[in-house]
Amino acid sequence: MSARPDLQRQATTVLTVERGMQVLRAFRSERAPLSNSELVRRSGLSKATVSRLTSTLLQLGYLRHVPGSRKFELAHGALGIGHAFVATSELLQAADVFMQDLADRLNVSVALAIPDGVDMLYIDYRVSRKIVTLRMGVGSVLPMGTTAIGHAVLWALPLAAQKELIAQLKQNAGRHATDLERSIRESFCELEMTGTCAVLGRFQRDAYAIAVPVIVGRRRVVMGLSCGKADVKPDLAAERKRICPALLKAAAQFQELLADFDGQP
């Protein structure tokens, strides 16, 4: 008879941990402090749940109060987890030198990203030493529906997952749903014809990105690899001609390099 209460307690604990992670994931790489109401909006949790969780996360050292404010920011506990991931990831250790070489050869920024709900999460980012960056970095979160790297990953996902995400993206886009889907379908056509897709100015003015999906390791994890740059009135056609062959070759080499990888990013 005691097994059922134990199972209920375990389920409650798992749900609490899951919700706590939702709160922590609401903080993005721009490092902007967040209030309880902003955390409610970003996490989708109730006000009472967020209030209870922020109090617990404060006590555990994962959040801290911004001095002179009622807002929160990540504390050393959360930062320690992120640092440990970056420092010990076999995948990122293999990707770093590879991506820096590509960035320097093409004079662009190079990003490696994974899907995170309806967003894309940068897990690695390298920049040519010759350019001004797009103010991105590891931990940056970009919208899946309006970025080249998001479209590339969407295209490579299993059909059921792809359809579900597109439906969610359209719902979130509201009155812009038709334009959003048109842009995604145009990228899908590009990917089918050339293996890459390009987006100009939809996420950041005068910034372009060209992306390709990569299927990583024995578990065939779908990720995105992109090259991008901010420039005044960039010639996207010329940039595609210059970048696409090198990006496609790099993607194939990257998949080969990590063919025996047996973990999660």
- What series of H and E elements makes up the topology? HHHEEHHEEEHHHEEEH
Mean pLDDT: 86
CATH architecture of the largest domain: 2-Layer Sandwich
**Backbone CA Rg:** 20 Å
Low-confidence stretches: none
Strand order, biggest sheet? Answer: 5-4-3-8-7-6
CATH H-tier superfamily of the largest domain = GAF domain
CATH C-level category of the largest domain: Alpha Beta
Assembly type of the chains comes to single chain
Number of helices: 9
- Total number of strands: 8
Q: How far is the N terminus from the C terminus?
A: 41 Å
Strand content: 15-25%
> Which structural class best describes the helix and strand composition?
alpha+beta
3D architecture notes:
This protein is α+β, with helices and mostly antiparallel strands. The protein folds into two domains: 3-79, Orthogonal Bundle (Arc Repressor Mutant, subunit A); 89-257, Beta-Lactamase, CATH 3.30.450. It is 52% helix and 19% strand. The chain has nine helices and eight strands. The protein has helices at 3-25, 36-43, 47-60, 76-88, 90-106, 148-156, 159-173, 177-194, 236-257; strands at 63-65, 72-74, 109-116, 119-127, 141-143, 197-200, 207-216, 221-230. It has a six-stranded antiparallel beta sheet with strand order 5-4-3-8-7-6. A two-stranded antiparallel sheet has the order 1-2. A hairpin with a 4-residue loop joins strand 7 (207-216) and strand 8. Helix 1 crosses helix 2 (36-43). The longest helix is centred in the first third of the chain and has 23 residues, at 3-25. It is globular and about 60 Å long. The relative contact order is 0.10. The model has no long low-confidence stretch (mean pLDDT 86).
